[in-house]
Amino acid sequence: MRVLIIKLTSMGDLMHALPALTDAAKQIPNIEFDWVVDENFSEVPLWHPKVKSVLLLTIVVGKRIFSLQVYKRVKKH
Question: Which residue has the higher pLDDT, 8 or 53?
Answer without folding.
Answer: 53
